[in-house]
């Protein structure tokens, strides 16, 4: 029989070049409609064809570009989607973007500032027009970058959290909760960003460590008898009759309503129920006992400022203390702060208060103190807790639903340890402040309301609203509940929990059954990547340099189930080398196949008619076929249990070492034996074809390109070929 020889590999370049392949292959997939669940069925057994497999992409902000976390998460989702598609499932991976209220408004405001314009100069309507213009220009950049990575999302279903239908869904959800009595408006202490001029929820804060001071301040006791009794039993206040409290924010003492101690603290039990004099303000305040006071902090006596601290606000409600607002929304001291500080900025007030206390001899001591300070997650400004009239969503019943979903196993976390994070937060949840004082976002659907809704209120509806809710659409019926959510650990409570209770309340079903919490990619020395510090890595640079398959390889290779990945580019380099290994192995195998495979008339053993598994004529044949069967089961099972890194390691070891290093060398000898040649050819092609299928979810471009060159009659594109069946 004639050999394929140069004819078989004529269109195989000596080395694989992703730049000549990836854009062309992606265009083929996209124009062929292979990403839509209804457009094509794989050639797998149709037993799965009526089953759906759905993933909704965590919608990136329209202000963002692809970062390493996005790239890892998208690769994980694409692996799952490609495997399920090849298994014959009706597969939908739904893309979209988030309007990112505060972030987008800040970006556009910065652009206007360069022109010497503020949003107030334009007015609300004109400013929103500017944002829409910005969105049209920049808002889809990250979606195009997903394409470069190879993400097989159904772009025909792309959604945006501010598109017309989505806005309708958000309004419907608000009115639903309002009618149910779970949405209410009240003046309560909230997190306020002075820069963004809006409230924020607890989950929208970030924290930075700050070197400050711990000030020990003397609060004179009003009753001399109690003071003398106190002093005989305490060494905390050696000079005069005073109770010493410790604070990092002396300026807030101007709004104190009490001093609190732990009821079990023997040092202060005789003072509970008595009064102290608030310095500077010269106002008598009660000394109260509260179980929440930590005896070990400072002196064990704590100043209580209900209007400007969340724990103090809770204490204030428990003990019916007055709320005195001494800091306003601009970050300046109010009239309530007294003549000494009215109108000053917070820092200026602190300096003046400390100076006045020292002047009066009421500073016991100062100590260096390093502590966490809450900052706005968008602009980095220090957050001010203060009373404000806001909309709140009652969380008691919703939290119970979300909690039960995890405890009952309806929603499973991978790795399982993240379930505890989810549960712990739900057990201590507060009512959710859902209103924001910005212009860009979903306007509260009540007459006279100018506030918009928290961005996370709308994104909590993502699995239902993207599929058509509140309308009873075909997509909603077919693809809800979705199958898997893959996300980062820092939004488990911001987003995952909220989607769970939204799905349960609005659809009576959890929105997904499995939550993959992927690793966080850190720098090589274990620090968070930062563009501003020059430690961030742009995945697009890696794709340009090494190709998308190599980049995906490097990402997944390092994702071995740990909490963090210390990034190393050497694994992307290894991915590029692996691409070349796959390419060269395919060139060799095809060079050994019969030329008739390319001819119009099939030979009796045309490669499109391979047996389910070739016959093993030698020990080497038997070993490679047994190892292939093991790897097929192992890799398939590992993907199904979300152990992607291990699956790739197993595939790599098999293909590079067992197939290329060992069997190909054995095959070269067997091909010289007329008795073994034909069967060896079949084994070579069988192992190559099966390996390409197993590798496709991880490295889709090179596998599709090689598949297109295989001498198989009536073959489909690899993206819709059967997963492990050999019927082609």
Write the layout of secondary structure elements.
Elements: H1 5-8, H2 22-31, E1 52-56, H3 68-86, E2 90-94, E3 96-97, H4 101-114, H5 119-122, H6 124-138, H7 141-149, E4 159-160, H8 164-180, E5 183-193, E6 198-200, E7 205-220, H9 224-232, E8 242-247, E9 258-261, E10 275-278, E11 283-289, E12 301-304, H10 310-319, H11 346-359, E13 363-376, E14 384-393, H12 396-407, E15 412-414, H13 418-427, E16 432-433, E17 435-436, E18 452-453, H14 455-459, H15 462-465, H16 474-479, E19 484-487, H17 492-507, E20 514-517, E21 520-522, H18 539-546, H19 548-557, E22 564-566, H20 570-591, H21 619-640, H22 644-670, H23 674-695, H24 700-709
Parallel strand pairs: 1-2, 3-4, 9-11, 15-20, 19-20, 21-22
Antiparallel strand pairs: 5-6, 5-14, 7-8, 7-13, 9-12, 10-11, 14-16, 17-18
Write up what this structure looks like.
With 728 residues, the chain is of the alpha/beta class. The chain folds into 3 domains: 5-10 and 569-720, Isoleucyl-tRNA Synthetase, Domain 1 (Orthogonal Bundle), CATH 1.10.730.10; 18-176 and 435-546, HUPs (Rossmann fold), CATH 3.40.50; 199-376, Valyl/Leucyl/Isoleucyl-tRNA synthetase, editing domain (Isoleucyl-tRNA Synthetase, domain 2), CATH 3.90.740. Helices cover 41% and strands 16% of the residues. The protein has 24 helices and 22 strands. It has a 4-stranded antiparallel β-sheet. A 4-stranded mixed β-sheet has the order 10-11-9-12, with helices on one face. Strands 8-7-13 form a 3-stranded antiparallel β-sheet, with helices on one face. Helix 12 packs across helix 17 (492-507), helix 19 packs across helix 20 and helix 20 packs parallel to helix 22 (644-670). It is elongated. It starts with a helix and ends in a 19-residue tail after the last helix.
